[in-house]
Amino acid sequence: MTNTINLMLAGPRGKMGSEALKLVERTDHFQLVACLDRKHDGMNINDIDGLPNLDAPIYTDANQAFDEVNADVLIDLTNPEVGYEHTRLALLHRVRPVVGTSGFTTEQLNEIKRLSEDYQTGVVIAPNFAMGAVLMMRFSQMAAKYFPNVEIIEKHHDQKLDAPSGTAVKTAQMIEEARESQKQGHPEEKETMSGARGADYDGFKIHSVRLPGYVAEQEVTFGQAGQTLKVTHSSTDRYSFMSGVHFAVEQVIEHDEYIYGLENLME
């Protein structure tokens, strides 16, 4: 019999947060014990119209929530500013964070890693929780060894705050590990409009598209004389991310260290 995992959820009214509530509702061994929200302090999550009927108090003060509630795992699906503070507080209280917020700075990630080590408390930060996206990144890393010329195009909804996406950055880092650094394109290439060729990473380009109608999509295109190879992944619904959230919650309970990227938990 699987042991019950007590969960605190940050951002329950957001699009990702509301999907996470549905995940908790349909998972027998997940128990929601509190929510962090910037509104509705002292209310119960089941008092909010349109959300699943779960019984858990709402806190606007994260410190108070961690002091008063016995949680095993924090799920944070908010934004970089509050997500970093929630993650930091969770580790200080030895609550294991599962974080789907992209846009953390290198300094913030280093601090989270240090706290995880100091408190021997596991944390999972995932640029993308869709299992297909994780496989897309892995396949791209495999291809980069044989197709070193590459560009990344990532497409997201127009409300996304950071560009490039955390998934694109993570993909670029994995590609960098697999190929020798090289400057791509014509050596005398010039942009007649600034930014036309996208952002530069290790000599290759990353392009970001922001339009209504997208949830999340990424295409990694490799080029070689006489052929091209494309590795793509599309999330058409935020439900696609919940399998990874479920997986990360169950995995973080078994780990006492900092983990960046779901691929590091997959065999």
From TrEMBL:
GO MF annotation, one: 4-hydroxy-tetrahydrodipicolinate reductase
Amino-acid biosynthesis among keywords: yes
Function according to Swiss-Prot or TrEMBL: Catalyzes the conversion of 4-hydroxy-tetrahydrodipicolinate (HTPA) to tetrahydrodipicolinate.
Organism: Alkalibacillus salilacus
Binding residues for (S)-2,3,4,5-tetrahydrodipicolinate: 157, 166-167
Catalytic activity: (S)-2,3,4,5-tetrahydrodipicolinate + NADP(+) + H2O = (2S,4S)-4-hydroxy-2,3,4,5-tetrahydrodipicolinate + NADPH + H(+); (S)-2,3,4,5-tetrahydrodipicolinate + NAD(+) + H2O = (2S,4S)-4-hydroxy-2,3,4,5-tetrahydrodipicolinate + NADH + H(+)
Keyword tags: Amino-acid biosynthesis, Cytoplasm, Diaminopimelate biosynthesis, Lysine biosynthesis, NAD, NADP, Oxidoreductase
Protein location: Cytoplasm
Lineage, opening ranks: Bacteria, Bacillati, Bacillota, Bacilli, Bacillales
Limits of the Dihydrodipicolinate reductase C-terminal domain: 132-266
Basic and acidic residues: compositionally biased ranges: 176-192
Catalytic activity, EC: 1.17.1.8
Protein name as annotated: 4-hydroxy-tetrahydrodipicolinate reductase
